[in-house]
C-alpha cells in the first residue's frame, strides 16, 4: 500500500508546486507587477489553477484514494498518513463537484472584478463594481449548488475556509455575542475618551519599518525563510514552508497601521513557518483553517502587541526612534491610546472591542445576498443601515463603506466570519497558555517570546492542516469554539482602561 | 481549418502561461527570494517546465501540425498564421527528437556540473570541474547525433539559439574579422592610453539608479509594462508582452557597471515591449534569436550609450548628479574614458574593440571540443595560448581564465557566438537607420529617440520570432549577417579617439 501512497504523494507534490507558483504570481501582482501585466497575469493564474484542479480531480487520484481509505482506517487516526488520506479525500470529494470550466471562468471573473473594484473605490462609484459583484454572487450560488443537498446555501462557502463548520454554528455564536459587544461599546461611550492624538503625528516610514522588523524578529519570525514587502492591502503568503512572506502598508501619519499590521501578518507567517517539515508539498502543509490562522495573527497583534506587558519591553525602543513624537508620552498614556475604543467606518482600523461587529455586519449581508433576500444593487444602503444600528456611524461615501474591503472583488464570500472566530480562538488558546506558562506575563515584559513560540509550535503550528478547526481547538483547550474567553478578555481589559 | 488552428493556439497559450510563470519564479529567485526557498523553488520550476514540455510534445500537437502544414502553404508566408505553424513545427520536430531519458539525465548532469564549477572557480581548481565538462561535451555530441545527418557536429547546438544558422557561416564571418580586430588593438596599444580614473571614484547607488532610469525613460522603455530591480547577474525577462522587466547591478566604485548594464538590458526589454500584441501567448511572442536580441541591447548600450551624440545630451545631467566626481571632467575626456580600449581577462568587462575576440576564442574552443580535436584536459592551456595570441594577456589563474563564465557548467554550448553576431547586426542595422533617418545624430544630441524607436518597432520589434535571424536581417538591410559595418564602425570610432 506504501507505493499507492507514494503515487498519491507525488501527484500532490506537483499540485503543491502549481499552488506555490500561483501564490507567487499573486504576491508579485500585489507587490511589484506593473499595470500592463494584468491581463497576462490573469491568464497565468487561470491556467495554473486549472491545471492544478484537473490534476487533482483526475480518475487516478480518485482510485488511489479508494484504495487508500480502508488502509487509513488501520492507522493511528492522528498519524500524518491517516490525516493526509482523510484531508485529501475530503478535498477531492469537494473538488470533483466543481467542473474545470467553472474554475477557469471563476479565475477570470474575479481577476477582472478586482480591477473594477479598485477603480470603483478610487472613484467612489459602486455602480462600476455592481455588475461584477452580481456575477460573483451568481457564480457563488452556482458553486453552492454543486454541493446540494446542503442545510444552508452559505454552508459550502463557509466550509471552504472552516472545514466542518456550519452556518448555524456560526450564527449561534454570533447571535449570543452581538448584544454583549454592543453593550460594552455603549458603556465605553459614556466614559471620558482616552487621548490618542500622539498616534496621528508624522512618523517616518523607514523608522516604522525597522521597528516592526525588530519586534517580529523577537517574536521568532525566521528571515531566512521569509521577507517583508509593501502592499496596499497587507497579506501573508507562502511558496512552500521555506519561503513565507509578509506584506505591510505604512502610513506616515498614523503609527498603528504598519505597527499592528506587521505584528498581525507575522502571526500568520510564524504559524506557517512552524508547520512540520514532513507535511511539505502535501495538502497538510499549511494552517488548519482561517479561524485558526487568525487566532495566531490576532494573538501576536492584540494579545501581545496591544498588551501592557509587551510595551513594558518595547516602549523604550519605540520612544528612542520617535523622540519628538513620543518623548513626553508615558507608557500608560501610550497603552491607553493604542487601545482607544471608538466606533469607526473601516474594519481594518477597528479596535478590538468594535472589530467583531464589522464582521457580523458582513456575515449578515453575505448570507442575505446568497439567500437572494438582498439584491447587490441594494447592498450600499443595507450596509449603511447596519453600520448605524451596530456602531452608530454611517459612511459618507461607498468608498469608505461597502467598497472598503477587497474580499468580495476577489469572490471571497464565507471568509469574513473566520476573522471573528479567530478572535475567539486566540483567547481560548491564551487562557490555556497562561495556565501552562504561569510567568508568561513577566517573560513578555522581558521580551522573551521563546517559550510561547515553543508552546504554539507544539500545540498548534506543527500539526498544519491535519485536524479540522473544531477538533484542533478541542484537542488543545478541551472545548470547541466559543465566545466566553473573548468576552471576558474584552470586559476585563476595557473595564480597566475605561474604569467601567 | 480555422478550428484546428484555434485548438493549436489554445494549447500554445497554456504553454506560454507556464513559461511566463516559470520566468517569474526565476526572476523572484534572483531578485527577492530568501535562502530558505531554494528547494521548493527548484521543485516548482522543475514541475512547470516538465508540464510545459509534455503539453508541447503531445500527440495532439503533432497531429494538429500535420493537418495544418499543408494549410500554411496556402497562406502568405509572412502572415502570422503561416509563421506560427512553421515555427511551432520546427520547435516540435526538434523536441520530439530528444528522448525523455536524455532530458532528465541532462538536467541532472548540468545541475551537478554547475555546483562543481562554482567550487572549482572558488578554489581555482579546473581538475574538479573537468570530469563534469567531459560528460557535458559527451552529452552534447549525443544531442547533436539526434539530429543526424548534420553538416557539422556544432550545427544542432547553434541552431537552438540562432535558428537556421550554420557553423560554416559563423566561421567564415569570424575568420575574416579576427585579424582586423587584432590589428586594430595592436595599433591602439602603441598609442598613449586615455584616462578613465574618474570612472573609478565613489558614485552613490541611488543617484546611479535614477540616472539610468531617466536615460531609459528617454529611450522609450515603457514603465507601465516593466520595472527595474537589482540582481547579482543582470538579465531581462518577461511574463508576457505587458510585463517586461530588467535587472541591474550597481557598483558604487565603478560608474560603468550599472550605467551600461541598464542601457543594455533596456535594449533587450524595449525589443520585447515592441513585439506585436497579436503574437502574445504564442511561440512568436518574443525576440527572433539571441543575436537579434543582442543587436538591440548592444545598440542601446554602445551605439547610443557609448556615443558622443548621446553624451552631448546626457552629460550635463550626469555631471549635475555627480558634481564632485565629474565637475572638472569635460565631455571629451568623459567620452574617451568610457571608450577606453584595454585587452583584459574577463569577457563581461571587455570594451567594444576587444569584446569579439573573447567570443571567437570560446567559439573555436567549443568547436574543437565538439569535433574531438581538443581534450577537455587540455582546455586551460588552449585557453591561455589563445588569450596571448588574440589579446596579448594571459590569465594568472584558471579562475580568471577558462573557469570565468557560467555557460559551460550549465551545458550551454553554441550560445557564445550570438554575442558577437549581435554586435555585427547592431551595426548593420545602424547603417540602415542612419540612411533612413539622416538627422539621427542631431536627434540623439537633443535627447530625441522617438523616431529611432519607431524605426526599430517597424523593422525589427513587431515581427517577434516570425522570421529566422538571417531572413530578418536580409529583409531589413538587404544582406545577411556580415562584419563590414562593424569593422568600419570600430576603425572610425577608435581611429578618432586614439588618433590612429
CATH class annotation of the largest domain in chain A: Mainly Alpha
- Give the largest chain-chain interface (CB within 8 Å): A-B, 41 and 40 residues
| Uncertain parts of chain A | none
Pattern of helices and strands of chain A: HHHHHHHHHEEEHHHHHHHHHHHH
Mean pLDDT score of chain A, rounded?
96
Q: Supply the number of helical segments of chain A.
A: 21
What is the number of strand segments of chain A? 3
User: What amount of the residues of chain A lies in strands?
Assistant: under 5%
Strand order of the largest sheet of chain A: 1-3-2
Largest sheet, strands/sense/barrel of chain A: 3 strands, mixed
Task: Report the structural category of chain A.
Answer: mainly alpha
**Ends apart, CA distance between termini of chain A:** 63 Å
Structure, explained:
The structure is a homodimer of 500-residue chains. With 500 residues, chain A is mainly α. Chain A has two domains: 2-150, no CATH class; 167-498, Neurolysin, domain 3 (Orthogonal Bundle). Helix content of chain A is 64%, strand content 2%. The first copy, chain A, is built from 21 helices and three strands. Chain A has a three-stranded mixed β-sheet, with helices on both faces. In chain A, helix 8 crosses helix 15. The first copy, chain A, starts with a helix and ends with a helix. The mean pLDDT of chain A is 96. Chain A binds chain B through residues 13-14, 17-18, 20-22, 24-25, 28, 32-41, 43-44, 46-48, 51, 222-227, 229, 239-243, 245, 280-281, and chain B through 13-14, 17-18, 20-22, 24-25, 28, 32-41, 43-44, 46-48, 51, 222-227, 229, 239-243, 280-281.
Amino acid at each position: 500500500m506504501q507505493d499507492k501512497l507514494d503515487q498519491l504523494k507525488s501527484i500532490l507534490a506537483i499540485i503543491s508546486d502549481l499552488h506555490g507558483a500561483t501564490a507567487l504570481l499573486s504576491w508579485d501582482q500585489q507587490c511589484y507587477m506593473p499595470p500592463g501585466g494584468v491581463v497576462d497575469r490573469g491568464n497565468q493564474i487561470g491556467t495554473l489553477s486549472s491545471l492544478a484542479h484537473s490534476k487533482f480531480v483526475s480518475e487516478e487520484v480518485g482510485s488511489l484514494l479508494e484504495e487508500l481509505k480502508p488502509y487509513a482506517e488501520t492507522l493511528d487516526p492522528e498519524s500524518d498518513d491517516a490525516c493526509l488520506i482523510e484531508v485529501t479525500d475530503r478535498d477531492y470529494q469537494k473538488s470533483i463537484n466543481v467542473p474545470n470550466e467553472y474554475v477557469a471562468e471563476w479565475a477570470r471573473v474575479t481577476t477582472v472584478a478586482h480591477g473594477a473594484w479598485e477603480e470603483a473605490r478610487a472613484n467612489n462609484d459602486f455602480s462600476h463594481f455592481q455588475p461584477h459583484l452580481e456575477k460573483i454572487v451568481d457564480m457563488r450560488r452556482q458553486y453552492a449548488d454543486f454541493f446540494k443537498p446542503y442545510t444552508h446555501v452559505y454552508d459550502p462557502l463557509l466550509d471552504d475556509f472552516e472545514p466542518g463548520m456550519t452556518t448555524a454554528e456560526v450564527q449561534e455564536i454570533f447571535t449570543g455575542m452581538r448584544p454583549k459587544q454592543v453593550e460594552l461599546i455603549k458603556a465605553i461611550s459614556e466614559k471620558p475618551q482616552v487621548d490618542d492624538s500622539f498616534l496621528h503625528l508624522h512618523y517616518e516610514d523607514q523608522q516604522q519599518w525597522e521597528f516592526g522588523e525588530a519586534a517580529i524578529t523577537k517574536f521568532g519570525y525566521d528571515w531566512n525563510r521569509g521577507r517583508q514587502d509593501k502592499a496596499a492591502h497587507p497579506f501573508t503568503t507562502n511558496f512552500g514552508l521555506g519561503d513565507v512572506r509578509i506584506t505591510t502598508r505604512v502610513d506616515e501619519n498614523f503609527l498603528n497601521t504598519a505597527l499592528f499590521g506587521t505584528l498581525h501578518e507575522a502571526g500568520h507567517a510564524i504559524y506557517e513557518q512552524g508547520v512540520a517539515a514532513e507535511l511539505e508539498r502535501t495538502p497538510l502543509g499549511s494552517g488548519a483553517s482561517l479561524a485558526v490562522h487568525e487566532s495566531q495573527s490576532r494573538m501576536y497583534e492584540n494579545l501581545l502587541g496591544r498588551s501592557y506587558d509587551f510595551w513594558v519591553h518595547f516602549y523604550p525602543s519605540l520612544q528612542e526612534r520617535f523622540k519628538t513624537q513620543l518623548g513626553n508620552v508615558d507608557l500608560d498614556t501610550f497603552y491607553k491610546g493604542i487601545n482607544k475604543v471608538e466606533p469607526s467606518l473601516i474594519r481594518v482600523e477597528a479596535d478590538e472591542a468594535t472589530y467583531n461587529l464589522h464582521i457580523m455586519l458582513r456575515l449578515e449581508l453575505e448570507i442575505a445576498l446568497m439567500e437572494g433576500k438582498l439584491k447587490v444593487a441594494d447592498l450600499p444602503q443595507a450596509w449603511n443601515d447596519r453600520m448605524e444600528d451596530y456602531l452608530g456611524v454611517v459612511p459618507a461615501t461607498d468608498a469608505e463603506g461597502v467598497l472598503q474591503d477587497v474580499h468580495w472583488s476577489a469572490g471571497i464570500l464565507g471568509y469574513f466570519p473566520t476573522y471573528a472566530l479567530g478572535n475567539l480562538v486566540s483567547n481560548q488558546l491564551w487562557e490555556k497558555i497562561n495556565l501552562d506558562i504561569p510567568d508568561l506575563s513577566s517573560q513578555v515584559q522581558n521580551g522573551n517570546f521563546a517559550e510561547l513560540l515553543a508552546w504554539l509550535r507544539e500545540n498548534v503550528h506543527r500539526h498544519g492542516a491535519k485536524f479540522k478547526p473544531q477538533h484542533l481547538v478541542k484537542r488543545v483547550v478541551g472545548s470547541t469554539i466559543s465566545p466566553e474567553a473573548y468576552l471576558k478578555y474584552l470586559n476585563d481589559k476595557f473595564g480597566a482602561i475605561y474604569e467601567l
